[in-house]
């Protein structure tokens, strides 16, 4: 390929068409300059809002410097894939029933890392068929990549006050993936923000984790507490978690832009094993083997059985004082894990004091 004569504008158009054919709902292209975001990110780290996510601080500003992460990178191709599953129990209905377990809608199906990585690789293979060998690296929430900033700059959407990406025609129920490449593709124009004076997500956060517009204290975020946090969940936050045992969607559920969200057509993102409305006691009864079997190929597998029980114990402690709930907790009172024991003990004390 002779770069001085190759039509990169046509290639960019082709990449978007190929991406749509592979199941992506939007493709955008941007350069690598994210310097405007560096002061905000540095301040976020300095305030300790990343909690135990040490990798955030360890990689530092490399997250906002794609050409340092992958030398030779000239452009970033961002891809969006909708994930909202069809035919699932409504989130509101589940969260209003204290006997059920709420699992973030993105985690009900197959692990998105595997799905997006495979499709992005297929897109790279298609590009190579056209241009020959080229430099690239694929990412799907798998390295220090500022995916929301890159997606915003590539014109796919804007960064909402909850720090998730928002799209006027798709809301926020989607995954993002990136291709860092050395191809000098024409960049798309960045989009503008359309949050206006709305503060619905800030108000809706159960634990007050959105401490200011565009600023999240991860240490209070239920997604962080149920997924990223390795140890004990702070006691003062446990009652605020309700029945959310893996992730939290409250800031998305209240967002006005999500009335435009599209249901996913991807079979891999549809709910498995009835996890969209399962009972807490049913899930708490899973032993290690059952957990591994029922979460095979799922993002949920990453937290392991111990933290799975920890999370459900908290939810049971927030449930009704029913003999069945107390019996379920008592069945785990002597669990080998001190972490599980602690949360079970707290839940039992909470139920018995109601």
TrEMBL record:
Q: Which compartments does it reside in? A: Cytoplasm
Q: Which GO terms describe its cellular component?
A: cytoplasm
Q: Name the InterPro entries on file.
A: 4Fe4S_Fe-S-bd, 4Fe4S_Fe_S_CS, QueG, QueG_DUF1730
- Catalytic residues identified in the record: 141 (proton donor)
> How would you classify this enzyme at the top EC level?
oxidoreductase
Its UniProt pathway annotation is:
tRNA modification; tRNA-queuosine biosynthesis
Domain 4Fe-4S ferredoxin-type positions: 186-215
TM annotation in the entry: none
Chief site of localization:
cytoplasm
Domain of life, per UniProt, equals Bacteria
Q: What cofactor does its activity depend on?
A: [4Fe-4S] cluster; cob(II)alamin
Under catalytic activity, the entry for this protein gives: epoxyqueuosine(34) in tRNA + AH2 = queuosine(34) in tRNA + A + H2O
Q: Which residues of this UniProt protein bind cob(II)alamin?
A: 63, 141, 165, 176, 223, 248-249
Keywords per UniProt: 4Fe-4S, Cobalamin, Cobalt, Cytoplasm, Iron, Iron-sulfur, Metal-binding, Oxidoreductase, Queuosine biosynthesis, tRNA processing
EC numbers, comma separated: 1.17.99.6
> MF terms per GO, please?
4 iron, 4 sulfur cluster binding; cobalamin binding; epoxyqueuosine reductase activity; metal ion binding
Biological process per Gene Ontology, one example term? tRNA queuosine(34) biosynthetic process
Q: Which residues bind [4Fe-4S] cluster 2?
A: 205, 221, 248, 251
tRNA processing as a keyword? yes
- Annotated cofactor note: Binds 2 [4Fe-4S] clusters per monomer.
Binding of [4Fe-4S] cluster 1 occurs at: 195, 198, 201, 255
- Functional note: Catalyzes the conversion of epoxyqueuosine (oQ) to queuosine (Q), which is a hypermodified base found in the wobble positions of tRNA(Asp), tRNA(Asn), tRNA(His) and tRNA(Tyr).
How this chain assembles, per its entry, is: Monomer.
Family, per the entry? Belongs to the QueG family.
Official protein name in the record: Epoxyqueuosine reductase
| Organism name | Novimethylophilus kurashikiensis
Q: Which gene encodes it?
A: queG
């Amino acid at each position: 390929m002779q770069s001085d004569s190759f039509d990169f504008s046509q290639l960019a158009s082709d990449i978007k068409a190929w991406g749509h054919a592979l199941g992506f709902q939007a493709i955008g292209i941007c350069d690598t300059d994210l310097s405007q975001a560096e002061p905000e990110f540095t301040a976020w780290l300095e305030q300790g809002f990343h909690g135990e996510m040490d990798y955030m601080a360890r990689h530092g500003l490399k997250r906002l410097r794609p050409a340092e992460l992958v030398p030779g990178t000239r452009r970033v191709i961002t891809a969006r894939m909708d994930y909202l599953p069809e035919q699932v129990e409504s989130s509101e209905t589940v969260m209003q029933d204290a006997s059920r377990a709420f699992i973030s809608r993105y985690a009900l199906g197959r692990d998105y890392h595997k799905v997006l990585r495979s499709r992005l690789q297929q897109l790279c293979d298609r590009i190579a068929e056209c241009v020959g060998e080229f430099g690239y690296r694929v990412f799907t929430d798998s390295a220090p990549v500022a995916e929301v900033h890159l997606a915003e700059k590539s014109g796919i959407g804007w960064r909402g006050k909850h720090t998730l990406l928002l799209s006027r025609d798709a809301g926020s129920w989607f995954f993002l993936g990136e291709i860092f490449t050395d191809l000098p593709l024409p960049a798309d124009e960045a989009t503008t923000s359309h949050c206006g004076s709305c503060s619905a997500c800030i108000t809706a956060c159960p634990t007050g984790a959105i401490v200011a517009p565009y600023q999240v204290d991860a240490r209070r975020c239920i997604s962080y507490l149920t997924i990223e946090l390795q140890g004990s969940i702070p006691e003062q936050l446990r009652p605020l978690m309700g029945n959310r045992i893996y992730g939290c969607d409250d800031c998305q559920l209240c967002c006005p832009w999500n009335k435009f969200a599209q249901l996913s057509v991807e079979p891999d993102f549809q709910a498995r094993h009835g996890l969209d409305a399962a009972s807490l006691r049913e899930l708490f009864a899973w032993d290690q083997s059952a957990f591994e079997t029922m979460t095979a190929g799922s993002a949920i597998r990453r937290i392991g059985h111990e933290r799975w029980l920890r999370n459900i114990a908290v939810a049971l402690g927030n449930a009704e004082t029913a003999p069945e709930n107390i019996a379920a907790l008592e069945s785990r009172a002597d669990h080998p894990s001190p972490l599980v024991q602690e949360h079970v003990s707290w839940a039992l004390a909470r139920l018995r004091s109601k």
